[in-house]
Design goal:
Keywords: Signal, Transport. It comes from Clostridium tyrobutyricum DIVETGP. InterPro entries: Bact_solute-bind_prot3 (IPR051455), Solute-binding_3/MltF_N (IPR001638). Belongs to the bacterial solute-binding protein 3 family. This is Glutamine ABC transporter, periplasmic glutamine-binding protein (TC 3.A.1.3.2). By secondary structure, this protein is α/β, with parallel strands linked by helices. The protein has 2 domains: 127 residues, Periplasmic binding protein-like II (D-Maltodextrin-Binding Protein, domain 2), CATH 3.40.190.10; 93 residues, D-Maltodextrin-Binding Protein, domain 2 (3-Layer(aba) Sandwich). Helices cover 41% and strands 22% of the residues. β9, α6 and β10 form a beta-alpha-beta unit. α3 crosses α9. The radius of gyration is 24 Å and the shape is elongated. It starts with a helix and ends with a helix. The protein binds glutamic acid.
């Protein structure tokens, strides 16, 4: 009898631990509740670029934020709420976008974010919605025509961007020895180019386009194609699914191509 009591006691403990385990794992996992939290809040918070014309750009005259990635984010809001206006934008840079997603200040990032294996360890990425390449911008007066001409020169790149690694690899291929200077943001790199502290400004060509002026030129060479994806926090599986469904539906219906044409990007 005593044995039976001890055994049933052990059984009860096992059952209790099993349920306690279930409880803690479901409270850690945001999956299944992430979309509900966004719906309850009534707005989708998206990190976008504000200084990349045609992708994510805040017009200084009108203060309006617009571009391909803005329209894409609106399409996700429409999928979630049935209303494309239920979206709130926050400006991000290459350096701030990851931390803003980590801290939950934004639900997703649609900001020229290149999908890499390394980044996939930290974030969920949607299927690609655009492919761009890394480019080089120099002063017209420098006479530099290609990567070979950048031998012994200094290249300005943004911190946390893929550009340094991409250019390093390509420079080695053509036998150019280059050095790098890293900056927090793109306006700083452009100023450094203008003041002669660097000889070249390198990042995705779409981003460079926003900084061309009469004194600068983007070289013809392009390197290291970059697939852009929408990033969401790991565990926010319902949101990741809604984003992916939006993008694949837009691909199928031709809407994505229409948007690319609307914004005049190739
Ligand atoms: N697309 C590149 C990256 O994700 C360039 C940086 C940027 O997007 O600002 O690293």
């Amino acid at each position: 009898m005593k044995k039976i009591k001890i055994l049933s006691g052990i059984l009860l403990l096992i059952v209790a631990f099993t349920f306690a385990g279930c409880g803690s794992s479901s409270s850690q996992k945001t999956s299944g509740s992430d979309l509900k939290a966004i719906k309850d809040r009534g707005t989708l918070k998206v990190g976008v670029k504000l200084d990349v014309p045609k992708f994510g750009y805040k017009d200084p005259k009108t203060s309006k934020i617009e571009g391909f990635e803005i329209d894409l984010s609106k399409a996700v809001a429409k999928k979630i709420f049935g209303d494309e206006n239920k979206v709130q934008f926050q400006g991000v840079t290459a350096k701030t976008r990851g931390p803003l997603l980590d801290s939950g200040q934004v639900d997703m990032i649609a900001a020229t974010f290149t999908i890499t294996d390394e980044r996939k360890k930290s974030y969920n990425f949607s299927e690609p919605y655009f492919t761009d390449s890394v480019g080089l911008m120099v002063k017209k007066s420098s006479g530099i025509k290609d990567l070979k001409g950048l031998n012994e020169k200094k290249i300005g790149v943004a911190q946390s961007a893929t550009s340094k690694q991409a250019i390093q690899k390509e420079a080695e291929k053509v036998g150019s020895k280059v050095t790098f200077m890293e900056f927090q943001g793109y306006p700083d790199i452009k100023s450094a180019l203008d003041s002669g502290r660097i000889d070249c400004f390198s990042v995705d060509r779409s981003i460079l386009t926003g900084y061309i002026d009469n004194s600068t030129v983007v070289l013809k060479e392009k390197f290291s194609p970059q697939d852009y994806g929408v990033a969401t926090k790991k565990g926010n599986d319902e949101l990741a699914k809604a984003v992916n469904e939006t993008i694949s539906e837009m691909k199928k219906s031709g809407e994505l191509d229409k948007l690319i044409a609307k914004w005049g990007i190739q």
